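>> received
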Amino acid sequence: MRKWDALCVVFLSFLVAETPAGSNPAVPVPSQPNIVLIMADDVSPDIFGCYGGAAKTPHIDSMAKEGVLFKTAWASAMCSPTRATMMTGKYPNKTGIYHNALMIKPEGPKSRLFARHKTFSKLMQEAGYLTAVAGKWHVGYGEEPHLEVTGFDQYSIWQLKNSKIKHLCGPEFEHTGAWENETCASRYWHPSIVENGTYLDTKPTDYGPDIFTQFICDFMEEAVGQEKPFLAYYPMVGPHDTRTGYPTTPLRGDVGDLGDYKRDKDRDERFAALNEYIDVLVGRILSKVKALGIEDNTIIIFCSDNATGDRNKMAGVEWGCRVPVVASGAGIKKRGAVNTLMDFSDFYPTLCEWAGVDVAEELDIDGKSLVPFFSGKTEKHRDWIYSTIATTQLLRTEKYMLEVVNLYLGHPAGRFYYCGDNREGPGYEQVTNHLEHAAERKKFDQLLEQFPPITADHAFWQTPSGKKFEAYYTTPQRRERHLYNHPATRFYDQKFH
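>> returned
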């Protein structure tokens, strides 16, 4: 070896030895990795095996073991606001989407959500990604995923209403997919699906979740064949509820309805079985990634949009917005269950950073990229997380939580909790009126100043939809359901102590 070559070797060895531990060179992020983002519909963390639940979910559990499981991840407590926040990186005070039935549109010709806010899928598409979405869309003001502004090259979407199908496919199209009571379109057996502008002629024995999963698998194979990085966004149609039977489970029953799901003595067992089938679908995607030979360059995330439907969905409490988030794959350091806080505004900058996209300051997003945390460069992600549902606000730090801040329902100050090191509810202490915690509470009030609530004099309340929503929202029964936890999760609610 020449003297110069020997010196180079020594110098390189020195650089390796001096690499800071936090840089974690053992977990590199591939250049433009493939990304699969899977979001279940209406399910709390406590059903999954990796969160201590009763359902057998080996594939999701393996993701948690090999990657990261967030103990405290916040979405909204409702479908549309969560999806809007995820896709724009912005909280509802910027998107105007506070609830499925409370969407405040700005005036003017560009009032549509994605005309005003650029999606992460659009940015990734512009960066060279092949993009697709399959499953339940349910975001924006009736906007469809195939629109050029959303940034999806392909889509396969469940459609509930004929009007949307006609919008996508033309006025001559009518859906034939029937819900179990035959009054509206099904997402499960005999599903109503529009795929890239074509209405699928499904049969009564066709199962919607299987079709959407296969679409995602076929899309990944196509992208690999084109040698392009891909984004596969899969907002699942399940579990959502327990109205119907599910393939490969003991409780499948006949195709279609299985009776009155709200009174069914087997409901809990059936819901567990449904989520086990969700895990089966996740397993199919994991297997496809492996079969394509792209494991070393693919990131997979599993999450949910809000709490389980008959528990705390639509409620202004932590257990309405606390959802499972599990991530594994390329560039994600094995950490297991973590106390680090995150909310759904963080998906936007995270996906963009993985894709090599600089998020322009003028986009004014609220999220913070998780990439430094995922890669092991940092041990802490952010100091606080935020959520809102309708006119209710929630805010949390590592040690404290503020929930049900709501002027309309008589809780202008909300309920303030000292959580200590707990992330899952038991052990919280309500300290709303405790002077020794007043300084911390003041910090929360200062943080909330950047999220002005919907005031009583807002023009929305004078519109027909505003009047209808307010009348519904302020009934005693709805108020009680919104402000307090479901009985199964009242372990930290002082009203019931």
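>> Residues 1-25, 250-263 have pLDDT under 50 and may be disordered.
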